[in-house]
Amino acid sequence: MSNNDNATTKDDRLLHQLRVPELYSSLESGPQGLSSIDAARRLARFGPNAIRAAAAVPLYRKLLAHFTHLMALLLWAGGVMAFVGGMPQLGWAIWCVVFINAVFSFWQEFRAERAVEALKKLLPQQASVIRDGVELQVEAEELVPGDLVVISQGDRISADLRLVEEWDLRVDQSTLSGESHPARKTAQPLHGEALSRTELPNLVFAGTSAVAGTGRGVVYATGMQTEFGKIAHLTSGTPDTPSPLQQEINRMTRLVSVLALAIGVLFFVLSVGVLHRELHAGFMFSVGMVVAFVPEGLLPTVTLSLAMAVQRMARRNALVKRLSSVEALGCCTVICTDKTGTLTQNEMTVRELWVGGQSLSVTGVGYGPEGEILTARGETVSLKERELHRLLLAASLCNDARIVPPASAGASWSVVGDPTEAALKVAARKGGVDPADEAARLPRLRELPFDSVRKRMTSIHREGEGETAFVKGAPAEVLALCCGLAKEDAVLPLAPELRGEILGAVDAYARKGYRVLAVAERGLPAASTDYSPESVEKELLFLGLVAMHDPPRAEVTDAIAKCHSAGIRVVMMTGDYGLTAESVARRIGVVRGEEGCRMVTGGELDAMDDGALSETLSGEVIFARVAPEHKLRVVSALQRRGEIVAVTGDGVNDAPALKKADIGVAMGVSGTDVAKEAADMILMDDNFASIVNAVEEGRAVYSNIRKFVTYILTSNVPEAWPFILQIMLNIPLPLTVMQVLAIDLGTDMVPALALGTEKPEPGIMERPPRSQSERLVNRALLLRALLWLGSLQTVLCLTGFFILYLSYGYTDLLHLPRPDLLSYRDRLLTRDGEVYVLATTIFLAGVVGTQVGNAYACRTERLSVFSIGFFSNVFLLWGIAFELVLCSLLIYLPPLRPFFEVGPLPLRFWGIVLLFPLVMFLAEEGRKGWLRARERKRFKVEGKIPGGAS
């Protein structure tokens, strides 16, 4: 029986410390690789080298769930009752409602869970291995612990390996570490290095790729036990949680369903048990109450509104994959963001140089060569100064990047290679050093690539009759290898005081948020044969320091200020060093004030328990040098504190945190496929400001949902009261069930959708985030929709209903004939029936007319509609036109009249109907004006000015 969870050695944590013979012994392998028989035995034991996906819920079960929730079951039952009662048309109509709601809701939640699949695609299909002493190609899934894998340039690594041989091997580990610079690898055992697992230079990991050199390594972990597999496990093990909107919609659905069922049962009992109506009549009455009370058009309208918001956000460079995430952004309370590329331009720029004891400034930004090098007094520095020339020369030659000029007018300079190295070449050109000319004059002979242990890179060049080694790297490491300082054409010994001065400059640059590199050189004898790092990188001449930074995006500062005014915290989580991260955070406004910000590194986070982490998150904090599991833990801790969390990410290592967050935001330009699949939203321009735009859109969406929920619930009141009045007063039913469906799924739909397109109201980003405890349908909304607007609609529609009866001579309104008990065809055979059909028609037209006024009334909650522009929502104008045309077709198109039980309303009654929207609109404008006046009076007493109230 296979068990991929065991596909690792007993203690692979110590493999990096073993010598090659000990390694072979530990893994029961050797230079000849495994035998075919042994490999087959291990494959049976450990299972295939594959990323195992968590069992997904089948699509049919997801779809079925939307046909079996409480509201759907209620409507299914209503349809059955209609069929039993001899009204098949009504039954089919109700079942169509169930189908429409289910399809739209399924579409809302339907998205492929492909994060794990994207991880699989990063793993190669085949691998080169040594088995039985022979190199051969095998399926990557057949690799087992102990296999000896052959690595060539360009290969994608199939499993986690410990190297036994390497020849200038460099590996791109950006999918795991996020570092763009290829890691130099070694086969030597390591002892005592304080490095994370992915930084160990003698280990190579699944999902990474060899960009240079060759090597061989022994497999020690496969499948889910690889570092890649562990990330996949974190990703697939992070369950989807309903968004705040989904929770609110579910809550409202349950509430409405229970109320509708309770009212239906109550009035069935009243009609049959108390009023002694026939069983059939009681059934039909109950069906009518359920259909009238349930807002059938709500779920489709919510879904369509969210879909349209997605389109608007896409035009603002935010591509939303999950519809419900739009609203979740609106109640976001914390944004956890990366620094590089999101808050910054991802364009390293050299800002200062430290040469010969003085600090020089470098002008210009980006990768274009425009700029110059100036002294502290603003004077241009001459390249005749040998120290500066040698510094720029060394920095440009100990360098593998390439600067590409603009391809066309209006285009920008671009980079091939590491952005840090590119910045060095740009600085050299600003100082008059042409990297291409110098590379031809001083050809490179050898290179000692950068690695995370040495923390430096060395290139060896022919210069004159001899050879020169140019070195660049971390200041402390390079300075420790230097014995002299170039100053004023002389060499000064590096006394402790001078070393302290240099380290002080490094610290000062770091506090400015700069990344600092040290540059040095050493002349080598022409007959040198030993080019090992130990022989070359010693007794160096210190040339100077290069301080560079990644400029913040121009719009980020304003975007972060908007977050603060909106009550949203911004937490920086970066792989950079703490001082650099804090400096950038202060510069762009993430950290406010001189004191009070805490810096937490990944190591410190590991030492914290959950209580300490929660306390840390109560104040301003920056997380530096963090790993994937750190991001995931911080997001989880924030959620336990009740925060709605958005988190940004671009690499494979960010996928678990992206999936765990309430809103996962991936980078569209620099992001990996895995990050994009795990995220809910993708920034097409990698710009933090686009997140803030999305938050504003999300807040507007929530506000707009409340608007059209108010609009939809309002019409439920005049839809329900006819059934109540019929049973209580024994009057003919003013509105039939089919007419209720015509309103809910016909005339109301487009205006409700148009309300979902309203622009953000003034001051929406000056309010605090919506509390999780705040309900979508709260007491104020219910009072406004049901008690105020709905009651007003009911009174107006009943007025039209009774006026029509009075105009035809029916004066005893409490003892009207009951042609509603007849079929539509039979009604038209009598005068009472004809008048009744016209009475229900004017009631239907009255509901539509009052909904026209209600649509405008619902555009704002407190502001006057005139303050946002009466005709500013063009879509609403078209929606109202659609509503009126559809109503006219229902009334005047002969084929539709029998189905909806209406008749051609005489023109004289339209004058009454046309007054209804005006009354609705003016009454609601008066109420809002009274509320604003009362609010202004209250704030005047308190000495405050209400924001956004006008």
What does this structure look like?
The chain has 950 residues and is an alpha+beta fold. The protein has 4 domains: 4-54 and 117-236, Distorted Sandwich (Calcium-transporting ATPase, cytoplasmic transduction domain A), CATH 2.70.150.10; 295-310 and 698-759 and 779-942, Up-down Bundle (Calcium-transporting ATPase, transmembrane domain), CATH 1.20.1110.10; 318-343 and 554-686, HAD superfamily/HAD-like (Rossmann fold, 3-Layer(aba) Sandwich); 381-406 and 413-545, 3-Layer(aba) Sandwich (Calcium-transporting ATPase, cytoplasmic domain N), CATH 3.40.1110. The strands form 4 sheets. Strands 10, 11, 12, 15, 16, 17, 18, 19, 20 and 21 form a 10-stranded mixed sheet that branches. Strands 8-27-26-25-9-22-24-23 form an 8-stranded mixed sheet, sandwiched between helices. A hairpin with a 2-residue loop joins strand 1 (126-131) and strand 2. Helix 4 runs antiparallel to helix 5 (88-109). The longest helix has 42 residues, at 688-729. It is elongated, with a radius of gyration of 36 Å. The protein starts with 19 loop residues before the first helix and ends in an 8-residue tail after the last helix.
Instruction: Write down the domain tally.
Output: 4
Average of the residue pLDDT scores: 82
CATH architectural grouping of the largest domain: Up-down Bundle
What is the distance, rounded to the nearest whole angstrom, between the alpha carbons of the first and last residues? 72 Å
CATH structural fold name of the largest domain: Calcium-transporting ATPase, transmembrane domain
Name the overall outline.
elongated
